[in-house]
Amino acid sequence: MDLKEERAIGGDPASHWYYISKGRAIRALIGEDHHRAVLDVGAGSGVFSRMLTQAGVATKAVCVDPNYSG
């Protein structure tokens, strides 16, 4: 999720219907196996990586977004 989008929805993206459904699709693609780590390229705010780690799909996430600095 882009940080500008996060401000626009005015709340936690993990509770927004669009990001919930997209997160479910990502989990379906990854499967039920547990992974040590996920690499989230183009992570933006890292909402999907957080969803995966909180669900226990992965122990940790490495988020990379070349369009953000800091």
Structure described in brief:
The protein is of the alpha+beta class. The protein has helices at residues 3-9, 17-30, 47-54; strands at residues 35-41, 58-64.
Describe this structure in words.
With 70 residues, the chain is α+β, with helices and mostly antiparallel strands. It has helices at 3-9, 17-30, 47-54, and strands spanning 35-41, 58-64. α2 (17-30) crosses α3 (47-54). The mean pLDDT is 87.
Beta-strand share of residues: 15-25%
Mean model confidence by pLDDT: 87
From N to C, what is the helix and strand string?
HHEHE
| Contiguous runs where pLDDT drops below 50 for at least 5 residues | none
Distance between the termini: 17 Å
Radius of gyration based on Cα positions: 12 Å
Q: Write down the domain tally.
A: 1
Main traits of this protein?
single chain; 70 residues; alpha+beta; 3 helices
List the helices and strands and how they pair.
Layout: H1 3-9, H2 17-30, E1 35-41, H3 47-54, E2 58-64
Helix pairs in contact: 2-3
